[in-house]
Amino acid sequence: MVDLVGRGPAPREAVERMATAIIHRGPDEHGFLFRPGLGLASRRLSIVGLHDGRQPIFNEDSSVAVVYNGELFDYPETRQALEARGHRFATHCDTELIPHLWEDHQERMFEHLHGQFALALWDDRKQQLVLGRDRFGICPLYWTRQKFGGSEWLLFASEIKALLASGLVRARTDLRGIDQVFNFFALPGPATCFEGVSLLLPGHYLSIQPGGSGQERRVADRVFWQIDFPDRGEEERGQDPDKLVESFQEVLMGAVERRLRADVPVVSYLSGGIDSSTVVALACHVRGQAIPTFTIRIMDPRLDETDQAALVSRHIGATPVVVSVGDAEVLETYPRLTWAAEGPVIDTSCTALMLLAQKVHEDGYKVALTGEGSDEWLAGYPWYKIDRALGFIDVIPGLKLSELVRRSYLGWLSGERGSSAYLRRAREASGGHHAFLNVYGLMSLSRLRFYSDATKEALAGYLPYEALEPDLERCARWHPLNRALYWGARVHLGGHLLSLKGDRIAMHSSVEMRYPFLDEKVFDFLARLDPTWKLRGFKDKFLLRLMGQRWLPRETAWAPKGMFRAPFDSFFAKKVPTYVEQLLAPESIAKTGYFDVNAVQHWKQRVCQLRPGSHFRTSVEMGLVGVVATQLWHHLFIDASLADLLRPSRAA
Questions:
Q1: Shortest CA distance to 409 belongs to which of 392, 428, 387?
Q2: Confidence class of residue 331 from pLDDT cuts 50, 70 and 90?
Q3: Disulfide: which of 49, 78, 441, 443 matches 53 by Cβ 3.0-4.6 Å?
Q4: 241-372+512-557 is classed in which CATH architecture?
Q5: Which residue has the higher pLDDT, 390 or 231?
Q6: Coil, strand, or helix at residue 478?
Q7: What is the rounded average pLDDT of the residues 343-351?
């Protein structure tokens, strides 16, 4: 935390409470730094430089200090280059790169940070604080401005729990965050569900510098990197498949090798799909032996992928640890998932990944590789194919029949007035139609179905797409597929896979996730390719599959993508848990005020009468799970009077 007005002493007790609240993120070591107008704290998960990496870490004369969460994967090469320029290192930890890079480059330092990170750097000479976050948003960073003690302070932390633990931030609802969930089933920021608390966006940094004489510090939000694609028609064609596969393999192999760098063992998740299987196969090749793997078994024959994972395991000589998850585990773990995520979670399959991370931790590991990012860069989701199929009916120039079909279909699903107008605004704010609007449209209809009149009025005029501030002129120049990839990365990747399904639930068990497909060199390579290498006809991840057949059984390399999810009806198809009944009780719905009491009771009674598997039932279920998720979040963070449910502990 930093004083924006003067140089008053930071409240030590508040800083210590903040550090304690996120001990799960760094149970190995802690450290503090207090200066006039400044208080820094760190919780360390020791992975590189186990014995001498305690933070804060300084430059040679201690004028620059850093606390940091993450990994810089080019540590050996960058350290060697810095030493060649005269910098002296006192530790064997990658954190020490940061103060030396600051000395050389100041705010352009971020261009030289390669990996995943959230950091706070203090320059004592300049009295400047810098907060930064990695390019894709793997590591979280939240901040808020609060007045107390006759001054105004900027508080920041890796989790909102730490801000609340300070005693200086009151937990109040920001409906913009709730509305993100009901549009995207994700929380991409910058708004959160907590009033006054912002998420620093991926590829951004805050520079907090002294103002003029007698003026408060200036807080500037700046961009050092953003997702970009070539203009349509300027993509690289790559006519020779063998050469292209060879080049891609070299880039991805390098990304895997860098993410195997650690002073502790590295394991991997393995689902049996092409993404995680390729990562595991390359990791075993780099290591020259099989690495430990962990697999989820969903106890539903339609969703169980353990046979596919076993096929890959036999192929590479690994013996996976299997964690079984069914409806009972989902319902039991769901409150703890919400506590870890700090926002409503509609995708209940996140509980399975939380239990998987817990097993990794129980088995004594701290680092796991995973395959997220492949679907984002290589069009791996089914809605890309749906969008392509709908595009085939646009045979009459100037007449977008596909758009008419989408509007009519979604309007029928919602049964609500205003659905077409809302979806039209979303399309315009996105720079044109893109494939993600198909699935987001399915979810956003629930806001019309379930929101109370007061919530609708409070959000009138607010559109989450506009709040994301895309560069529409730049988006319009891209191929439509690349435009969809951008929105998938901006919303689904950053706001869901890397947070609600990634860092937040893994670090809850003190496990760091590493993502080879989110290496910036991998992204740069794939971003410039012609879209036909990503989606060839109706075959997704085409280039990856060509490469995968070199390393995996052919049936794995070319198997259709299976969506990893838990059934949406976990709460409703069988016996409804007591806490869910209490959260959905009319008095609880009325107490929070977010939702229409009659609508919730109506659809709660009717949902199981709808045809299983139908899009209409799925739409209603998604909305009802959103209501449960929001009520549960409110109970855990805002007002613990909605149900007989205690706030989860880390050990729960």
A1: 387
A2: confident
A3: 49
A4: 3-Layer(aba) Sandwich (3.40)
A5: 231
A6: coil
A7: 90
For the chain, report the end-to-end CA distance as a whole number of angstroms.
Answer: 30
Least confident of 20-34, 136-150, 203-217, 524-538: 203-217
Q: Would you say residue 300 has pLDDT above 90?
A: no
Contact indicator for 490, 188 with CB cutoff of 8 Å:
yes
Residues, the chain: 652
Q: Is the peptide bond before 56 cis (omega within 30 degrees of 0)?
A: yes
563-612: pLDDT as tens digits: 555 555 566 666 778 999 999 999 999 999 999 999 999 998 888 888 87
Q: Is 246 helix (H, G, I), strand (E, B) or coil?
A: helix
> For domain 2-223, is the CATH number 3.40.50.300?
no
Closest CA to 130 of 205, 197, 70, 190: 205
Could you check whether the bond before residue 190 is cis, i.e. omega within 30 degrees of 0?
yes
- Decide: residue 295, CB within 10 A, 0-12 exposed, 13-18 middle, 19+ buried: buried
For the sheet with 266-269, list strands across it. 321-325, 293-298, 266-269, 367-369, 512-514
Where along the chain do its domains lie? 2-223, 241-372+512-557, 391-497, 567-652
Residue 301 CB partners (closer than 8 Å, separation 6+): none
Residue 199 has pLDDT above 90, yes or no: yes
